[in-house]
């Protein structure tokens, strides 16, 4: 009888021959000897045949393991994955985008036939066909040999996840076999290279979302969160928009994002502690290594808050807690957090005055762009105190842009309205007036405020801020406030509350120059209160 051997039946034939004890001692040239020669000279020399044979060994365990067929296949596959790409002359599956030099579109390509370029990750798609256990053993063998780029290992794991986890790209795995998929996520997590940037932040977040939906163990989720914390500055807003569990009332999982920011902050603290206290680089390291990543994280979180604010069920405390975590991060502009605040106020009309005041404290009016200021001074959702703050800074910036050089005097005039050591108003009067400051102004009141602030700028420009002019400005401000709070006198203590935490105007003239009223940036667009067109940042 003639039997044709191939990669699909050679394992079955070898195990059967072993069971029948068809050794050389029984007859010269017996079947076991012939099968071993075929495996060594043909199967293990072929890339795809080695993968096929390895796949078929699972059916014949433990025989295939005891006969060392599995170990020979693992060694064959791992060795070929390590081979110099210039020596890869066999077929392989590769569906990724080719490089310009491969398809003839390279501008330096002179039409001469070149040897085809083989990418470093040429082998990852073929191995994605392996069963979970076998795939784990192959990757472990490749890593054990050493020398393989961690980026290539990371790409192999990413390709396997997308190949073996249905719905992985959407973060929703069907519940047909949750135990199997839980094991798969655990396996991929355990095989992730320890080197930073070996896998993308987007892939790690997708893996975390899958682990949450599959209810994987806390150890796996904690490890993924720790790794994401190392890469959070690479994340996008779309990456962080994780759907909340089914038992939650909110649309997005804000709590998980809160934990990711915590991990990011822990990573930065541990990074600083790597240097001894007497090392002068201790002070330089955060500026060069941490600040740039913090700026990126703050920008992403601002954008994230603007998106999740559209959820009518999002509690204020979750919004504020997440925003406060990045409040100390350097930001060239506060337009992002302003947009998030405005979106929240727009979607949550029923919040109280105290809640509105609390959320507005998250932004610094001095760091709003001219466009954001134009929007804010016409924003009927903001408390009156915030609108007045924005108006003052807008006028100061407009004065600077005009080239008059009178901004320091104007700033001094504003600061002269701030309280000194003593306050003349009673506590009850202050409390009553605070309620009006925290109220939402009407469109007419906003228009009146803008007009009066315009006169302040003109007066300062034409006359200069001497003592008499300072009194005139204060009277103008009181006139504006009188329109809102009839019969109430604007005391210095009240103005202190209005400008709470904004008393660093002149002190910051050397920093944040592009944002502060003392800036001489000629490129800043001039903003005038006479514009009535409403601009929307949201």
From TrEMBL:
<feature type="compositionally biased region" description="Low complexity">
    <location>
        <begin position="507"/>
        <end position="520"/>
    </location>
</feature>
<dbReference type="Pfam" id="PF03000">
    <property type="entry name" value="NPH3"/>
</dbReference>
<feature type="compositionally biased region" description="Polar residues">
    <location>
        <begin position="423"/>
        <end position="432"/>
    </location>
</feature>
<comment type="similarity">
    <text>Belongs to the NPH3 family.</text>
</comment>
<keyword id="KW-0833">Ubl conjugation pathway</keyword>
<protein>
    <submittedName>
        <fullName>BZIP domain class transcription factor</fullName>
    </submittedName>
</protein>
<dbReference type="InterPro" id="IPR043454">
    <property type="entry name" value="NPH3/RPT2-like"/>
</dbReference>
<feature type="domain" description="NPH3">
    <location>
        <begin position="121"/>
        <end position="397"/>
    </location>
</feature>
<dbReference type="GO" id="GO:0016567">
    <property type="term" value="P:protein ubiquitination"/>
</dbReference>
<feature type="compositionally biased region" description="Polar residues">
    <location>
        <begin position="521"/>
        <end position="530"/>
    </location>
</feature>
<feature type="region of interest" description="Disordered">
    <location>
        <begin position="399"/>
        <end position="435"/>
    </location>
</feature>
<feature type="region of interest" description="Disordered">
    <location>
        <begin position="503"/>
        <end position="538"/>
    </location>
</feature>
<dbReference type="InterPro" id="IPR027356">
    <property type="entry name" value="NPH3_dom"/>
</dbReference>
